[in-house]
Amino acid sequence: MHTETINLYEHYHTAAPGDGGQLVVYALEPIPKVDPKRRFPAVLILPGGAYSWVSPREAEPVAMRFLSRGFTCAILNYSCAPARFPVALREAAMAMGFLREQADRLHIDPEKVAALGFSAGGHLCGTLGTLYDAPEVADVAPAAMIRPDALVLCYPVSAAHGRTHEDSFTNLCGQDQALKDRLSLDRLVRRDMMPVFLWHTRTDDSVPVDGTMRLALALAEQDVPFALHVFAAGRHGLATADDLVYRRDNLPPVSDGVRDWPELAVRFLWEQGFHIQDGE
Questions:
Q1: Which domain CATH number covers 125?
Q2: Could you tell me which of 202, 226, 206, 93 has the C-alpha nearest to residue 153?
Q3: In the chain, pLDDT over 70 holds for what percent of residues?
Q4: Which of 5, 65, 176, 224 could connect to 262 by a Cys-Cys bridge, CB 3.0–4.6 Å?
Q5: Short-list 55, 58, 49, 74, CA closest to 172
Q6: What is the tally of structural domains in the chain?
């Protein structure tokens, strides 16, 4: 395995408007005696933190799980408040562009790069999957380089209306209500979207499940391929919900199946063709 940390602003020779933009890459490498030309699917991981910080619990532990299933992983430390929209989105766009630009060197299949986000990072993931051709990112890279091939949204901050996580939208948009309404994921859904995997817990008292349900309905209305898993019990911010992020004696109570979400997500991605590609 190859690891590296990239300052995306330095890589793209542009000034940094926030304190984020660092991408940590865990790149799988072909085994020479097996197939030196293998290419691996990749996942860009966007941790949560209400757009006020970037949670380490939803970073490397998640990468370790997906690495073990054959995915090259990259974790983006994106800019948070006081940086506002579209700073984090532009950094996510740069990260996707970097992974595809460096696909040969990192042994990535450039047509199988997913984005995976948690909570506010799930919202960032959703905007990346719907605004990849928006004016705010047009100068970052061509839309085809930015567009994820699939989304995995984990207890995402989805809707800006109804029961929601107000702090996330305020940290992202300030008091601009029109911008909050524009960035409500259920209103950004488009018919040409990539497949989406969603999961949430019914008892999440920080980011209510309501927004995820609204997002799923919007995806269904636009005939976007998606899978939705709503587990009966579990608090917010579970990440991998296992010993990687909690001590054994401090594991939060969760429903059967919550700890299986990474495997469910991997199988969903496999169904979309996210397999290791052997060389010709």
A1: 3.40.50.1820
A2: 226
A3: 99
A4: 65
A5: 49
A6: 1
